[in-house]
Design brief:
With 1035 residues, the chain is α+β, with helices and mostly antiparallel strands. It is built from 26 helices and 39 strands. An 8-stranded mixed beta sheet has the order 27-26-25-24-30-29-28-31. A 6-stranded mixed beta sheet has the order 4-3-2-1-5-6, with helices on both faces. A 5-stranded antiparallel beta sheet has the order 13-12-14-15-16. The longest helix is centred in the middle third of the chain and has 42 residues. The protein starts with 6 loop residues before the first helix and ends with a helix. 26% of the residues are buried. Pfam families: FACT-Spt16_Nlob, Peptidase_M24, PH_SPT16, Rttp106-like_middle, SPT16, SPT16_C. Belongs to the peptidase M24 family. SPT16 subfamily. Component of the FACT complex.
Length: 1035
């Protein structure tokens, strides 16, 4: 099959090369012809000669000599390659070939001399311009007799050689759209391999405490690119490493790309990783530093390094000299942290393309080349030989920080990062939980690790609880101090209660209507001014519709009655309206009743009561219209005016289609698309409705995946409410369903039904597809906003059941909130706004308890979460403790409305009495508690007299039953029972024997004894009531 050559790309690029040569800038002005000769050398990966071939033809052509003269181009190659090059040599009928010098193809002879062909090429060079100087790539030296004989020919001819590597590199540095596409793909693959393989592998190694050598880990990364799942759909044959991955840790760092990973074991400190992937001959590069339990100083230095990179990205623009960008970054560092300037890497990156590193376009203080739009650079900056002051081991004492990205130069904006792998501390820091068993582990060695852990298990669990209590005690002290300070600051800002809006019907008499009904002393409704004009003592008196509370009409006999009730001080105005009148001391009319006859008098055109009936109907209409308008105005009240959305007309904007919005814009739910623009999102429904959400108005952006859920959700909890659908909303979400929410139970189903299995498989694929689409959208948005907007993902493992509203749902913590977004209405609590959390009804015999969330803003109503299972109590405590939130617990339900009102009314008094410590039973000093333990017991359990009697009665009964069962001969219980002794009883027994003719006296005695014993049992309760002291005597 013939190999195709992209002719259009060749013509475009050869024209660019000749265009720059004719301008005669730098070395181009010195040369009369350009010679590019490529031999065979398997060891050479990057060479300018092979790069220009790939750039022009898309392939490397070994054993090929190219001579570019002023008016013609000569290629000397083997027969196969000449056939391939004929595609561009024949220019007939191709308009793009206009202006391109004609090509002469020479077929290489089998003997090594090729003298005839060499002579033709030398002749062409002599005929080009002055024919004395040839431009070559002096660093490219290929072995073999063929190349040697050609180089000897040039030398023998006395032609002067000039290195044109830099000027050709500058010509090739500006990438076309096709090249940029390939480099973006290469960068995306590098990012995937790093995120999904390398980072995950390092996490596994740290978790399992494995010993893995740097070189072995680097080899595993090289093998990973053979697996399609990391290549984002690319063909593995088109993907290769730009260089072997460089992994360094444990104090030995060299922040260059020419080093190789050593054979030392990976140390859990600062782990630098550099990797670059080449896709279809185009390179990319990525550098990250992972940190295990970094001390604060290391974190500060790392954050500063990120700031330096941001500064560099701002400087790298079209038309800026490389040295100027470098010096600007250096100046920034001197101003912010001058002590780190000496630790900075010597250069900050280089241009990249078909060759990994372009030596003539390195970012340093001497490079005079200007950046151009479309260039792609690999920026890499780091701090070497930093000292860890908290280190105990030798390998921890020195560390380095190294970050790098593949970037694209833009016209005016800062450079675009093509490797959007997150690099903030929270994304690259691995924070391990401290365990008490660590020291023991080091002493005992790895073999005794499990035994040591088992031995310490109980002690560790106990200390974890103690640690939690100690931490909570610290939080309690801090909480009261912080709350007291905050309330004293807010003391001056007293809330002004809003007066009820005064509605004036007519500002002057001229506005009063002159209607016939008014003159006839009938009720008249002025719709324009929303006023009811009523006759009061023969005078037409206007009342604004807002003053009317309600109206009622009734018919009694021959009369119709219309009763009008008005708002007056003391009457309830509704929950939100307050009870304030502009002038409460005025005289108010509470109600007016009008009566009219239902009988038509002779000469009347209509029944008198018609006026009241019409008035009743019209007043209701006007009242409804007024209330609707007021409700709309109230919704708009306090709405903060948002900035206008800046529409980005670029078609490649992040976009999600086929989403539903909650709450609905109209009564019926509608699908639409969500698109990210320059400063916010825009949702456009299929009907054309638009909802704009600006990035700066989003408090929490939450992504709820579809794992274990029937919908996949993007939820936005806003700082300020927005209006749509005539209502204000602070929570807006976009979702799509991922499966059948309803199932037909009437359908006969079989577990191995082929259709059902297929449907399940399709649903699994659908879930995976949707999750990938949403994640991709989120990553693009975070890159677009430069991570100013970050999406939180709920931690399902930490979730617990609860009922914040009417139904029970799964509440899940995120990094900054507690949320439930799958049910409606949604539940979102910002953790930074929480003062403390109180658990109510925590008792052993109850299965559920309630959670009360108190906010730092005491005027805000507390949030209640009911019916939380008691087995979630410990996990919730652990989570709150890790978030530095104070929690308390109690057995009773409290009246929080009264508590919060008391605090707001008298904050000083509240904190003088101990503040929030009233919720915590353990807060009154642990030492005092230990000293007076018996006292506390008495105080804690102090039953009343009646309870004491009952208690003793019960214990006496228990006690008596025990003794009577164990001792067959019953003891004397009371005065009433102790009438007869054993002698008298025996005498009675003998008499009974004689009467019944029994001979066995002993048996009779025993029988009688047991019968008396039974008798005693029956009267036992009365004995216990007579006095508890008998019990003690008997024992």
């Amino acid at each position: 099959m013939a190999v195709n050559l992209d002719k259009e790309a060749y013509y475009r690029r050869i024209k660019r090369l000749y265009g720059n040569w004719k301008k005669g800038e730098d070395e181009f002005g010195k040369v009369d012809a350009i010679v590019v000769s490529v031999g065979v050398d398997e060891e050479i990966v990057y060479a300018k000669s092979t790069a220009i071939q790939t750039w022009l033809f898309g392939y490397e052509l070994t054993d090929t000599i190219m001579v570019f003269c002023d008016t013609k181009i000569i290629f000397l190659a083997s027969k196969k390659k000449v056939d391939f090059l004929k595609q561009v040599a024949v220019t007939k009928g191709n308009e793009n070939a206009n202006g391109v010098p004609p090509i002469t193809l020479l077929t290489r002879e089998k003997n090594e001399s090729n003298k005839a062909n060499f002579d033709k090429m030398i002749e062409a060079i002599r005929g080009s311009k002055e024919g004395k100087v040839v431009g070559v790539f002096s660093k490219d030296k290929f072995p073999g007799e063929y190349m040697k004989s050609w180089n000897d020919t040039i030398t023998a001819e006395g032609l002067e050689k000039v290195d044109i590597s830099a000027v050709v590199a500058y010509t090739m540095a500006v990438k076309e759209d096709g090249e940029l596409g390939l480099m973006k793909k290469a960068a995306a693959i590098t990012s995937e391999v790093y995120s999904k393989f390398f980072k995950e592998r390092v996490m596994e190694i740290v978790d399992a405490d494995e010993k893995v050598r740097h070189s072995k880990l680097a080899e595993s990364v090289e093998k990973a690119i053979e697996e399609k799942k990391y290549l984002g759909g690319a063909d593995p044959s088109t993907v290769e490493m730009c260089y072997p991955p460089i992994i360094q840790s444990g104090g030995n760092y060299s922040l260059k790309f020419s080093v190789v990973s050593d054979k030392n074991h990976m140390h859990f400190g600062a782990i630098t990783c550099a990797m670059g992937i080449r896709y279809k001959s185009y390179c990319s590069n990525l550098v990250r530093t992972l940190m295990v339990d970094p001390p604060q100083e290391m974190q500060d230095n790392y954050n500063f390094l990120l700031q330096v990179e941001e500064e560099l990205l701002k400087e790298l623009k079209h038309g800026v000299k490389i040295c100027d960008a470098y010096n600007a970054v250096l100046e920034y560092m001197k101003k912010e942290k001058s002590e780190l300037v000496a630790k900075l890497t010597k250069n900050l990156g280089f241009a990249m393309g078909i060759e990994f590193r372009e030596g003539s376009l390195v970012l340093n203080s001497k490079n005079q080349y200007k950046l151009k739009k479309g260039m792609v650079l690999s920026i890499s900056l780091g701090f070497a030989d930093l000292v860890n002051k908290e280190a105990k081991k030798d390998e921890q004492k020195k560390y380095a920080l190294f970050i790098g990205d593949t970037i694209q130069i833009n016209e005016e904006d800062a450079a675009t990062v093509l490797t959007p792998v997150k690099k903030k501390i929270k994304n690259v820091g691995i924070f391990l939980k401290e365990e008490d068993g660590d020291d023991a582990e080091e002493l005992l060695g790895k073999g005794a690790r499990s035994a040591a852990l088992l031995a310490d298990r109980t002690r560790n669990e106990m200390t974890a609880e103690e640690k939690r209590r100690a931490h909570q005690k610290e939080l309690a002290n801090h909480l009261n101090e912080e709350a007291k300070r905050r309330l004293t600051e807010q003391k001056g800002e007293q809330q002004i209660q809003k007066a009820r809006k005064s509605n004036v019907s007519y500002k002057n008499v001229s506005q009063m209507p002159r209607e016939k009904d008014i003159r006839e002393m009938k009720i008249f409704i002025d719709k324009k001014y929303e006023t009811v004009v009523m006759p009061v003592f023969g005078i037409a008196t206007p009342f604004h519709i807002a003053t009317i509370k309600n109206i009622s009409m009734s018919v009694e006999g021959d009369y119709t009655y219309l009763r009008i009730n008005f708002f007056v001080p003391g009457s309830s105005l509704g929950r939100q309206e307050g009870n304030i009148f502009p002038n409460p001391d005025a005289t108010f009319v509470k109600e007016i009743t009008y009566r009219a006859s239902n009988l038509k008098a002779p000469g009347d055109t209509s029944v008198p009561s018609t006026n009241l009936q019409n008035a009743f109907r019209i007043i209701k209409e006007v009242q409804k219209r007024y209330k609707t308008r007021e409700a709309e105005e109230k919704e708009k009240e306090g709405i903060v005016k948002q900035d206008s959305l800046v529409i980005n007309l670029n078609r490649s904007n992040p976009k999600l289609k086929d989403l539903y919005i909650r709450p609905n814009i109209a009564q019926k739910r509608m699908q639409g698309s969500l698109e990210a623009h320059t400063n916010g999102f825009r949702f456009t429904s299929v009907r054309g409705d638009k909802v704009d959400i600006l990035y700066n108005n989003i408090k929490h952006a939450i992504f709820q995946p579809c794992d274990g859920e029937m919908i996949i959700v993007l939820h936005f909890h806003l700082k300020n409410a927005i209006m749509f659908g005539k209502r204000r909303h602070t929570d807006v979400q976009f979702y799509t369903e991922v499966g059948e929410i309803t199932t037909d139970l009437g359908k006969h189903q079989h577990m191995h039904d082929r259709d059902d299995l297929y449907a399940e498989q399709m649903e699994r694929e659908m879930r995976h597809k949707l999750k990938s689409a949403f994640k991709n959208f989120i990553e693009k948005v975070e890159t677009l906003t430069k991570e100013q907007l970050e999406f939180e993902v709920p931690f399902r493992d930490l979730g617990f059941q609860g009922a914040p509203y009417r139904s029970t749902c799964l509440l899940q913590p995120t990094s900054g909130s507690l949320v439930n977004t799958t049910e409606w209405p949604p539940f979102v609590v910002t953790l930074d706004e929480v003062e403390l959390v109180h658990f109510e009804r925590v008792q052993f015999h109850l299965k559920n308890f309630d959670v009360v969330i108190v906010y730092k803003d005491y005027s805000k109503k507390v949030t209640m979460i009911n019916a939380v299972p008691v087995n979630s109590l410990d996990p919730i405590k652990e989570w709150l403790n890790s978030c530095d939130i104070k929690y308390t617990e109690g057995v009773q339900s409290l009246n929080w409305t009264k508590i919060m009102k008391t605090i707001v009314d008298d904050p000083e008094g509240f904190f003088e009495q101990g503040g929030w410590s009233f919720l915590d039973p353990e807060s009154e000093g642990s030492c005092a508690e230990e000293d007076s333990e018996s006292e506390m017991e008495d105080e804690t359990f102090n039953p009343s007299a009646s309870e004491e009697e009952e208690e003793e009665e019960d214990s006496d009964e228990d006690y008596s039953s025990e003794t009577e069962d164990s001792n067959y001969s019953a003891s004397v219980g009371s005065e009433e029972e102790s009438g007869k002794d054993w002698d008298e009883l025996e005498e009675e027994a003998r008499r009974a024997d004689k009467e019944s003719h029994y001979e066995d006296e002993d048996t009779s005695a025993v029988n009688n004894s047991s019968s008396s014993n039974n008798k005693k049992r029956k009267v036992r309760p009365s004995a216990s009531r007579s006095g508890p002291s008998k019990k003690k005597r008997r024992s």
